[in-house]
Write a structure and sequence with these properties.
The chain is of the alpha/beta class. It contains six helices and ten strands. Helix 1 runs parallel beside helix 2 and helix 2 packs parallel to helix 3. The longest helix has 15 residues. The protein binds iron/sulfur cluster. Iron/sulfur cluster binds next to loops. One of its GO terms (molecular function) is ribonucleoside-diphosphate reductase activity, thioredoxin disulfide as acceptor. This is Anaerobic ribonucleoside-triphosphate reductase activating protein.
Length: about 240
Amino acid sequence: MTGETLRVARTHFPVSALGPGRRFGVWVQGCPLACKGCMSLDTWDPGGGLEVPVDRLAAQWRQALDQGADGLTISGGEPLAQPGPLAVFLEEVHRLRAGTTGEPDILLFTGHTPEELDAHQQLAASYADVLVTGRYEAGRPTRLVWRGSANQQMVLRSELGRRRYAPYLDWEPEQPPLQVRADEHGVWIVGVPRLGTLSRLDGDLRRRGLPAEAVTWRPCPSEHGKRRRSADSHDNGETS
Ligand code: SF4
């Protein structure tokens, strides 16, 4: 029992659009970086989401491993805004993956550059096999997979990370992988869409009569963002 908690926006399994294979995804709640054009506005509020015991997240990771998960993706929000509990969770993740026959990897998205990290953040980041680093800059589009803007770097930190992710460093897919999901809180997406994708999706949702304020990527002057709560979800892994 760790006794630690991590403030989380949502978890999901399987994630197939953020990292290779079928993955357990954790979206950390709270981001102070305020990138213009961020599609995860619902994760900015540091008081949103839910405090989730690290032990519960570790149990979910164990369950995902039992179902053959290829890795863990941590996104947000800004995961390194909670470096202490994140490091405790990732230590558990390492311990549990050591008992598997596969090679599940750890992919961590952060809006910080490596140079910005303090000692606590460096420790948490050190558990990742791969980092995707840097703010989202809407004016610098890219076609590279799993990066939102051209300034963002994919950093391969471990032997596993280098072996598994080297083919993706320069990969520009015809269509970036995306999963579109809906729950009682609204519509949310998994993946890194290209410029223009969200407005097209927004138009599709309007045509289908879905409430426009119930999308996670829209600035929310109403109480919508405050009403959101952490959600754990499982599905069949269809990719839209
Ligand atoms: S793009 Fe990422 S780092 Fe930037 S504001 Fe959004 S959640 Fe924070």
